[in-house]
Amino acid sequence: MARLKCVIAYDGIRFSGYQIQPNQRTVQGELEKALKYMHKNEGIRVTASGRTDAGVHAAGQVIHFDSPLTMPSENWRKALNTLLPDDISIKQVQSVADDFHARFDVTRKEYRYRILHRKESDIFRRFYTYHVPTYLDIEAMREAATYIIGTHDFSAFCAAGTKMIDKVRTVYDVRIEQQGDELVVAMIGSGFLYQMVRITVGNLLVVGEGKTTPLTIATILATKDRKKAFATAPPQGLYLWKVSYESLNAL
Predict the structure, then answer these.
(1) Active-site residue 53, yes or no?
(2) Could you give the count of Cα atoms lying within 13 Å of 166 in the half-sphere of its Cβ?
(3) pLDDT tens across 15-32, in order?
(4) What is the pLDDT of residue 160?
(5) Residue 248 in contact with residue 98, Cβ under 8 Å?
(6) Which helix (H) or strand (E) holds 216?
């Protein structure tokens, strides 16, 4: 039995999220369907670095699974891509140690949120960016972002009703960069709570629109109260960009 690690990308717009759900089209469901076919109707369970919501995309999601089959990594990649739908792509496959875990071994993740920042919308990017036609003070947003960096209890920036008890996370960096007519917010951290990136972006946008000050972000964070924070940015602008592992022993 070999353990395989895959880096995958997917267009999230036609999925009801990553995690398998009854009677719903999901990324995990499509992956396991392809693996079941390859293993002659034997079920193979895949484990991901984390879940993504409906409409959220991934450029560098990581999964692992165990298989009794033996073949070169490149053959695995080609075979899976042949069986998977066009909105999922296997970018890389490698054999890893039996104790590697796609979720528990993560040392950092990077998410990116794309904002179409211009007056006119773009119908071809409506599922891949969030259109904000109003003026944004980018320097104020960058100042606000500095209050997010560090180790904090992010209860105020977590979806209400989240059952996870420990809501302390470390954010290593928040970058806000202009790329043509898009504003890209990149967040790198040890891990992220449910909707944490989207809530953070929603609050940074309120600062950028001049509706509150950068220091308000620090005040909201200190309250540990989701009701004190502002709206959640919509899912289509969000991408799971990269998942990193401090030590990975490839075989």
Answers:
(1) yes
(2) 5
(3) 999 999 999 999 999 999
(4) 84
(5) no
(6) helix 215-223
In terms of pLDDT, which residue wins out, 80 or 163? 80
Rounded to an integer, the average pLDDT of 67-91 is 97
Q: Which two tokens stand for residue 40?
A: 């002659």
Give Cα separations from 195 to 14, 51, 64, 161, 218 (angstroms).
19, 11, 24, 11, 18
Going through 134-225 in order, the beta strands assigned E by DSSP cover 150-153, 168-179, 182-189
Q: In the CATH hierarchy, which top-level class contains the domain 108-242? A: alpha beta
Burial label, 205 (beta-carbon count in 10 A; 0-12, 13-18, 19+): buried
Q: Helix, strand, coil: what percent of the chain each, to 5?
A: 25, 30, 45
Q: Is 40 helix (H, G, I), strand (E, B) or coil?
A: coil
Residue 86, number of CB atoms within 10 A of its CB:
7
State pLDDT tens for residues 88-128.
999 999 999 999 999 999 999 999 999 999 999 999 999 99
Q: What's the length of the chain?
A: 251
Query: Hey, where are the domains in the chain?
Result: 2-104, 108-242
Which residue type is seen at 206?
V
Buried/exposed 5-30: b ≥16 CB within 10 Å, e otherwise: bbbbbbbbeebbbbbbeeeeebbbbb
CATH of domain 2-104: 3.30.70.580
Question: 174-210, pLDDT tens digit by residue?
Answer: 999 999 999 999 999 999 999 999 999 999 999 999 9
Hunting for tokens 């998410």 — which residue is that?
111
Q: Which of 53, 137, 153, 181 is catalytic?
A: 53
* Pairing relationship of beta strands 108-116 and 238-244 according to DSSP bridges: antiparallel
Q: Do domains 2-104 and 108-242 have the same CATH topology?
A: yes
